[in-house]
Inverse folding.
């Protein structure tokens, strides 16, 4: 069965938190060390959707395989057309083209909402995500040395942007 891409719903919150928390605990893909609760994820889904922002999931019916969402890149009205995105897949979903499908659907949502660009803030150690974004048409527009700290070391952030 081909996984479907659909808007997230509150019932997805626990599965989203499980995917995200594995990444938080085990990797430098995200610099945060604070795990997500299903309640906080459900609130985030509702808030983003109420603001007209995309929050999508990939599901094969039996399980959630990935998520993609976006929100403001920075605060203030001057930044209202620039969005920062997040995309995560479960381990089981990697290498099947699902990331491509999720980010394409997210870009379509952002474009339809009138946004000018999507920005990915990628860990400097996450060369796979940098390569993925490049394949999807994102361009490195900045590198911020030593802005993150996790697992006892400093980490760079790579900003990658796609004009919509």
């Amino acid at each position: 069965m081909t996984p479907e891409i659909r808007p997230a719903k509150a019932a997805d919150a626990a599965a989203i938190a499980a995917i995200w928390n594995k990444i938080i605990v085990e990797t430098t893909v995200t610099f945060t060390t604070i795990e997500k609760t299903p309640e906080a994820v459900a609130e985030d889904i509702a808030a983003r959707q109420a603001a007209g922002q995309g929050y999508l999931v990939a599901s094969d019916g039996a399980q959630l395989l990935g998520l993609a969402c976006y929100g403001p890149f920075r605060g203030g009205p001057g930044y209202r057309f620039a969005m920062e995105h997040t995309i995560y897949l479960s381990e089981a979903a990697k290498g099947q083209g699902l990331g491509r499908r999720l980010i394409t659907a997210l870009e379509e949502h952002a474009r339809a909402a009138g946004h000018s660009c999507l920005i990915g803030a990628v860990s400097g150690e996450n060369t796979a995500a940098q390569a993925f974004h490049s394949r999807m048409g994102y361009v490195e527009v900045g590198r911020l040395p030593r802005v993150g700290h996790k697992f006892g070391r400093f980490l760079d952030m790579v900003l990658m942007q796609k004009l919509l």
Observations:
- DSSP finds four helices and seven strands in the chain.
